[in-house]
Amino acid sequence: MTPLTTPDAGTEQVHDRRPRSLGEVKGWFRHADIVLFDWFLSRQDRLEQHGDLLEMGAYMGKSAIFLQAYLRAGERLTVCDLFDGEAPDNPNAREMQKSYSTLTRRAFEANFRAFHEELPRIIHGPTSWVPDEVTDASCRFVHVDASHLYEHVRGDIVAARAALGEEGVVVLDDYRAHHTPGVACAAWEAVVTGGLKPVCLTSTKFYGTWGDVASIQDELLATLGERDDCWVGAEEIAGGRVLRVNADRVPEPRLPRSRYAGEKPAPSEAGTGRVPASRGKKIAKDLLPPVVTRALRGLR
Ligand SMILES: C[S@@+](CC[C@H](N)C(=O)[O-])C[C@H]1O[C@@H](n2cnc3c(N)ncnc32)[C@H](O)[C@@H]1O
Q1: What region, left, alpha or beta, does residue 186 occupy, with left being phi > 0 and alpha being psi -120 to 50 degrees?
Q2: Residues annotated as region Disordered (predicted)?
Q3: What's the rounded Cα separation, in Å, for the pair 59 and 63?
Q4: Of 9, 43, 101, 201, which is most buried, counting CB atoms within 10 Å of its CB?
Q5: Are the CB atoms for 144 and 158 separated by under 8 Å?
Q6: Does the CB atom of residue 57 touch ligand 1 within 6 A?
Q7: Which residues does residue 200 pair with via DSSP β-bridges, in sequence order?
Q8: What is the pLDDT of residues 206-229, one digit of tens each?
Q9: Where are the domains of the chain?
Q10: What number does the ligand 1 atom closest to the CA of 59 have?
Q11: CATH class of the 22-263 domain in this structure
Q12: What is the pLDDT of residue 265?
């Protein structure tokens, strides 16, 4: 989800602050998608589908930190991001300036190291480098969350298709937001003309495959359709079935743990020693002689 909406971490994450939980890492990785990423990646694990993970657009690391936790022996996560580097064209440069002007690779790495010993493989540059850097058919899961401009997303979907093995899953961020029409256009174009089959949709992400869509959908329906904290609906689009999922109330899966989990909040969060105004008034009322309290009230 792009920055016209507020990132998940409520506060501006300064680069040297140590995140004590994934929730404290600034980014746009929503609860329903955390649930679905977990479902797709755990399913791949259960079916022993092997392959690398790839993320185009990592920002401060929120979804990348989560993805790294699903790697098995011999697999790796690759992330591609411009970070503080140069955008390949003016519209992309404007997008970067408007939305990610404080981002640095250092901030990403510091966040990532808070949760994992090893950094992922980093392609520090535009996603147009991905086809040269990532071996064809080497991945099982690709998250496309970089530029939201049509020409870029179109290329990213082509790169995702090449990177994915037969049973691979691609996730497209912001396929339906008002401020990202380019993603919507590229996503549905890939469905209508590029053989991409939608598995399911959340309010922020599109999950698809170029492989066997029916078996994934049947399993998803069987798992989520049974639950009373989840809603799944099906409809036909361009001759194919698409599931719509609302998993907002499904309990969160186990999240990667920060090495700083036990640290006390920074002074700015924990309180500055100042007493909140309403409590301050009550303490004054309890402690001061009535005549002083009345005088103060008069002054106010
Ligand atoms: C919406 S953010 C990614 C959010 C992240 N996945 C998360 O979970 O918080 C988009 C990222 O894409 C990067 N980006 C934008 N244009 C790019 C391009 N042409 N190539 C590579 N990265 C790009 C930005 O630097 C930014 O970090």
Answers
A1: alpha
A2: 254-281
A3: 9
A4: 201
A5: no
A6: yes
A7: 207, 243
A8: 999 999 999 999 999 999 888 899
A9: 22-263
A10: 27
A11: alpha beta
A12: 75
